[in-house]
Amino acid sequence: MKALKQPERRSPDGPSKDSLILWFDEVTNRDVPLVGGKNASLGEMTQGLTAEGIRVPPGFALTAHAYRSYVQHNDLGELISEQYRLLAEKRLQLSDVTRIVRHRFVQGSFPDDMKLQVSEAYRELGRRHGGGDCDVAVRSSATAEDLPDASFAGQQESFLHVSGIDELLHTCKLCFASLFTERAISYREQKGFDHLAVALSVGVQMMVRSDMASAGVMFTLDTETGFRDMIVINAAYGLGETVVQGIVTPDEYRVFKPALERPETTPIVEKLLGEKEVHMVYGEKWSSRVKTVNTPLQDRRRFALRDVEILQLARWAKTIEDHYGRPMDIEWALDGESGELFIVQARPETVQSRSENQAFKTARLIEENPKLLLEGLAIGSTIASGKVAIVESLAEARDFQQGEILVARQTDPDWVPLMKKAAGIITDHGGRTSHAAIVSRELGVPAVIGTGHATRELFKGQEVTLSCAEGEQGRVYRGLLEFEESEIDLSEIPSTKTKVMLNIASPDAAFRWWRLPADGIGLARMEFIINSMIKIHPMALVKLDEIEDSSLQRKLRLLTQHYQNPIDYFVDKLSMGIAHIAASRYPDPVIVRTSDFKSNEYAQLLGGELFEPHEANPMIGFRGASRYYSPDYREGFELECRALKKAREEIGMKNIIVMIPFCRTLEEADRVLEVMAENGLARGADGLEVYVMAEIPSNIILAREFAQRFDGFSIGSNDLTQLVLGVDRDSEQLADLFDERNPAVKAMISQLIEVAHDEGCKVGICGQGPSDHPDFAEFLVEAGIDSISLTPDSVIRTKKRIAAIENSR
Predict the structure, then answer these.
(1) Which of the listed ranges 132-141, 440-449, 524-533, 638-647 does the model predict with the highest average pLDDT?
(2) How far is CA 644 from CA 639, 653, 773, in A?
(3) What tens digit of pLDDT does each residue of 185-216 get?
(4) What three-state secondary structure class fits 789?
(5) Are 648 and 601 in contact (CB under 8 A)?
(6) What residues pair up with 359 in beta bridges, in sequence order?
(7) What's the per-residue H, E or C state across 704-755?
(8) For the packed helices 64-73 and 32-49, what is the interaxial angle rounded to 10 degrees?
(9) How far is CA 436 from CA 232, 330, 461, 537, 718, in A?
(10) CB-CB contact of 676 with 682 (8 Å)
(11) Helix (H) or strand (E) holding 788
């Protein structure tokens, strides 16, 4: 369908309360009592955002007055009151009441004037679309729906691919009747709404032919952490109901919101390919309005949206959020005929946006090396354990016990009473915007969504622990594992002169800690991103055509199948992983250390054994800077440089600082900086700062000379202690000797800080020492260190300790 220009209809005084029909361009958010939340929002966007280029399919609403007129015309008021009286007296079951009331609604007739006005509005919609009957979506919109403190999502009915006046009138009756489903009545009772005071409006909206393209949902914040600078988009083929209902595992895209204002950037920081197992398309009129069919394998293996479409949706989402002044939950659709995107619904986000910003909850498993059974998307950030209850259908729900782990293929609104009893939820299908995910968040129940095969892999009564406290990936472990939870009031954390930064290894974990009062990220380890997201040795991609092992060739080509050039897989994944971390603290500095695998660790990557030497002591072997200009790895380092350049310039994370590890000599520093410059990362260009790790005695002894080449130092206290004292950091026999508080190590650190500051260089430290040893933290502060970077779980107690030290000076 094509976007249609609608006439200006709204009068200065607003629409009449006695109107039976109101077009979307006649209503705004002020008219929820007349047309309900969904329709008022469509009107608000039609009036307020069309000029911003946002396309909203045209349509009209049967008003709350129309609903009440229908109730009066068919004498339904007395019936409803009588049925509720019998229910209260326990003379009828809820199921009996809903059956009787809904049957009378569907059997009723429209008043003549209402039928005429609906028919005329439908014909007008068809004329403006090209003439004749048009396909419409018919959706219920309760007049208390989608208020800031209540979400009626999924409580009333919607119908797609409705065509012809007779079918339209019939589906309007079904919408009216859906105000009295069991789940709708139960929900109103839970929220304290008067059943008779709540009316229902019906929205009639032109269908977008997403059955021929794709559709989905997006949020203007991170749905699991509440991080406000991220837009999360879910997409699947066909009509959007498969995404909303959690029938499929959709694609997921994350877009960094602040960089959308810079047209030269492409701020997509994550693209996850979903299974998109099935999709919903138009059915044959004589059988069904819509039908669900299997998605061809070649379509499942590609993304449902192009980058340009992802960015357009993200920009629209930001515009909508700015207009409403709050985080939003938005439904979108791509028309397969016109190629145009449309916004088909927008409502306030009701979970994360209401969470208390000053309350910071953490959870962690105590048991080490637990047995992993399944992985999926983590919903929430807590942990639960219990016995598995596999529920194939609601017919089995009566056997479900309070505190069990609910395992299902997917859920829908009828499952909510069951979900309330669960300690945790696991599903085969669904994404972050599926019904199971949305309700789990509202209930505060941890869930692992889209595992693929939980209903087959787990068994009834099995004891499991469900963890959503390890980043974006939710994990299901065998057994009832020990875990601990804590809650901290962040408003009580003092400020410090010494900057306190974070050590972050995994992009998955970065957003979990955005509320922590930190001054940036002092250490983001590139090797962790390579190991968790890429899994391939970079030289194996550079030399892919030369690899003789056919089995290895197949594995590498399977992982990189979405890329014409396999090395683009490495650059793309690494740049997004880096940008993901950088986004979590933007615009504060984020120091990204280039890869610091040892040769034995590199060898464990796919294809790594072909390119790594066997070393007797990898700890002081072919690692860090020495690799970057070596013919054996230089081409791999060039891929790292390309990823850093892309993260900074294309994605827009100019807060990234590059740090070089294990740089032994000045000549080595010069050679590395030369390679970087040749690959578009010249120090000083476009504001790029380059730091060096201070972890070798030569870095301290020649600190003045290193300071001429780098903008800052970061002390690697473990390696520095090892090399100053000559103690193997991994030796159990020498553990008592390994101590960064040794006077020789402290003398090195003091010397570095003094010389670096003379040369105008910053000095930080990344390590556990300041957290584990209060006296070491005191020494660093007294020595004048600029920043201390810590693991997130030690930031709060160490920041308090630093504040006490500073205040006592």
Answers:
(1) 638-647
(2) 9, 9, 34
(3) 777 666 667 767 788 999 999 999 999 999 99
(4) strand
(5) no
(6) 489
(7) HHHHCCCCEEEEEHHHHHHHHHCCCCCCCCCHHHCCCCCHHHHHHHHHHHHH
(8) 150
(9) 17, 17, 22, 37, 45
(10) yes
(11) strand 787-790
State how far the Cα of 337 lies from the Cα of 92, in Å rounded to an integer.
Answer: 51
Q: Find where tokens 């130092």 sit.
A: 713
CA distance 621 to 251: 42
- Supply the residues annotated as catalytic: 435, 766
Strand partners, 280: 238, 292
Q: What would the pLDDT profile of 145-185 be if each residue is shown by its tens digit?
A: 444 444 444 456 889 999 999 999 999 999 999 888 887 77
Say if CB 388 and CB 404 are below 8 A apart: yes
Q: Looking at beta carbons, which pairs linking 690-694 to residues 24 or more positions away fall under 8 Å?
A: 690/657, 690/658, 690/659, 690/660, 691/591, 691/657, 691/658, 691/659, 691/660, 692/659, 692/660, 692/663, 693/593, 693/624, 693/659, 693/660, 693/661, 693/662, 693/663, 693/719, 694/720, 694/752, 694/763
Q: What angle do CA 425, 385, 351 make, to 5 degrees?
A: 45
What confidence tier does 1 reach under pLDDT thresholds 50, 70, 90? low
Cβ-based neighbours of 263, under 8 Å, separated by 6 or more: none
- The values of phi and psi at residue 356, to 5°, are -80, 115
For residue 240, pLDDT beyond 50: yes
Token pair of 76 as six digits:
């339904």
Q: Which residues of 719-741 are buried (b: 16+ CB within 10 A; e: fewer)?
A: bbbbbbbebbeeeeeeeeebebe
Instruction: Please check whether residue 301 is in contact with residue 562, taking contact to mean a CB–CB distance below 8 angstroms.
Output: yes
Tokens 């030497």 belong to which residue? 613
> Distance between CA 6 and CA 566 in Å, rounded?
48
Its pTM stands at: 0.86
Domains and their CATH numbers in the chain: 21-207 (3.30.1490.20), 211-354 (3.30.470.20), 359-488 (3.50.30.10), 493-808 (3.20.20.60)
**Is 485 within 8 Å of 363 (Cβ atoms)?**
yes
Place of tokens 């008592």: 736
Q: Helix crossing, 165-177 with 94-107: angle to 10°?
A: 150
Helix (H) or strand (E) holding 437: helix 435-443
Q: With bands split at pLDDT 50, 70 and 90, how would you rate the model's confidence at 6?
A: very low
Residue whose C-alpha is closest to residue 292's, from 398, 128, 161: 161
